[in-house]
Amino acid sequence: MGWFEKGEKVRIPAAKELWAVCPKCKSHFEKTRWKKNGAICPKCNYHGRLAARERIAQIADEGSFNELFRCVSYSDHLEFRDATGSYVDKVEAAIAKTGETESIVMGTCEIDSHPVMLGVMDFAFMGGSLGTGTGERIVRACEQALAERRPLVLFSASGGARMHEGILSLMQMAKTSAAIGRLKEAGLPYISVLTDPTTGGVSASYAMLGDINISEPKALIGFAGRRVIENTIHQKLPDDFQSAEYLEKHGFVDRIVQRGELKKFISKMLNYWGF
Amino acid sequence: MAKKTAMDCVKLARDPKRPHIWDFIGNICSDFEELRGDRLVSDDRALIGGFATIGDEKVLVLGHHKGANVEENLAANFGMVNPDGYRKAMRLAKLAEKFGNPVVTFVDTPGAYPGDTAEARGQAEAIAKSLEVFALLRTPIVVVITGEGGSGGALAIAVGDRVLMMENAVYSVISPEGCAGILWRDGTKAPEAAEALKITAADLKRLNAVDVIVKEPKGGAQNDHRAACENVKKAVLAALKGLKKIDVDELVAKRYGKLRAMGDFS
User: Fold this and answer.
1) What is the per-residue pLDDT across B208-258, written as a single tens digit (0 to 9) for each?
2) What span, in angstroms and rounded, lies between the C-alpha atoms of B123 and B127?
3) Residues of chain A with C-beta less than 8 angstroms from the C-beta of B128
4) What contacts B59, CB < 8 A, 6 or more positions away?
5) Would you call A101 helix, strand, or coil by DSSP?
6) CB contact (8 A) between residue B136 and residue A207
7) DSSP conformation letters of B85-127
8) Mutation test of the interface with chain B: which of A138, A143, A223, choosing the one with the most B Cβ atoms within 10 A?
């Protein structure tokens, strides 16, 4: 075949299929290398986002996770619709994309043989937003943990309350905080793990209420958004503002723990407390 | 006259001439002694607290303070509370619990203060802790949404046994402007967002987020503070009367049940 004849066209993959870009230090890595490193930046140690199931696989003892409340899902109380369509269409798309039916996956499991109630939020499900289904799962988990005397471990990853569910999403902040409060009053431990990102109504409710609050390197944690704050105070904020390191320095997280050490750290704490 | 839209309510709720916390205190309470400070950092002027007498009831009053003029606005940070304010509210609520005083809160804030110092002192933790403290507090709590119920900054002092809401007040997970900016990508679509979010007293009553709507004088509370406050006083006293009969264990259990029912799962 002459060079001028048309052969089979070699497809050049788009850059984003090949490269992972660290959102913190902007370094580029081959996707396979990023994945192999457990979504942790090889250069700056930023701990990237994980799907709920990936996290569960890392934290729960193998084969011990028993999922609960999967039938508790979203509710369109407001028949909400914005410029780009209905809430129902958006949340159904999130369900199809993630395979989850809410922004938190809940279940019982063992962590180094300690029985616990484990909840893991999935940021890929509508930004990990706190909806009525999310709140209901957390409250049911607290009640079951209380009945079975299980410690509660929650991994948060969320942009905040789900505005498509209006006031009832706001009320989930109070509802979950009430249930967590009862659990703690009953002498049961609650370990909150704030992962990237934990902001808005989730940081301002159950995520900050841990008997201990722990986090991963460089996770974004805060109440208000950076841009909102910059517009309010008319100043540029430092790069480390609202990072896990900033929170640790100001006394709002007990420890920043490397992803690979999390499981050991949690089981050690449960061990200290006799659970 | 055309039907009042959600955005009309937003405008009324934000009207600077609307009765503010000191108007309510002056018109509703026969006496009031302010108590200041969080014992940690400062005294937040955006959240006022103190003991008071309403009718025959000795209560703790807590309320957002926006200020009625520019000078007051600045001193009160436009009603945007810092963590210090919420920690003061919790401290006083614990005092009320200790001495058996019911708590009456007046809610009127655009939202918790979004500032760097607020973040450094733990705005998220302060709000979270407030929710926990008020949910478990062993004394009756009556909440009155009087103007703007701005998201978490409002909710931090709005967990209670009876939630009253003035007719033209609004209460929302996000401001209509904020929601329009995110979901419509156009801040001028706030009226559409306001409708969609269901933030008026009538909508919130239907959603069981509030228990009682308090009528306002013709045209709105800004036209007649005295009459507006009188209506609020009657509603607060009626709510307190009912709550005081309930044994405190049952009261706290019922409050949990009320929160538990937010979102429709049975």
Assistant:
1) 999 999 999 999 999 999 999 999 999 999 999 999 999 999 999 999 999
2) 6
3) 173, 177, 203-209
4) B51, B52, B53, B96, B101, B102, B103, B104, B240
5) coil
6) no
7) HHHHHHHHHHHHHHHT--EEEEEEES-S---HHHHHTTHHHHH
8) A223
Phi and psi for A215 in degrees, rounded to 5? -145, 175
Q: What is the pTM of this model?
A: 0.96
Domains annotated on chain A, with CATH:
15-46 (no CATH), 49-272 (3.90.226.10)
- The 10 Å Cβ neighbour count of residue B264 is 12
Instruction: Determine the Cα–Cα distance for residues B212 and A230; give it in Å rounded to an integer.
Output: 38
Exposure letters A126-145 (e unless 16+ CB within 10 A, then b): bbbbbbbbbbbbbbbbbebb
Q: What is the crossing angle of helices B123-136 and A166-185, to 10°? A: 70
Interface contact B114-A168, CB threshold 8 A: no
Nearest residue to B107 via CA among B60, B156, B68, B141: B156
Domains of chain B: 13-166 (3.90.226.10)
Buried b vs exposed e over B141-170: b needs ≥16 C-beta within 10 Å?
A: bbbbbbbbbbbbbbbbbbbbbbbbbbbbbb
What are the pLDDT tens digits along chain B (266 aa)? Answer: 568 899 999 999 999 999 999 999 999 999 999 999 999 999 999 999 999 999 999 999 999 999 989 999 999 999 999 999 999 999 999 999 999 999 999 999 999 999 999 999 999 999 999 999 999 999 999 999 999 999 999 999 999 999 999 999 999 999 999 999 999 999 899 999 999 999 999 999 999 999 999 999 999 999 999 999 999 999 999 999 999 999 999 999 999 999 999 987 75
| Exposure of B254 in the CB half-sphere (CA atoms within 13 A) | 14
Using an 8 Å CB-CB cutoff, list chain A residues near B174.
Answer: 161, 163
Distance in angstroms (rounded) separating the CA atoms of residues A256 and A215: 5
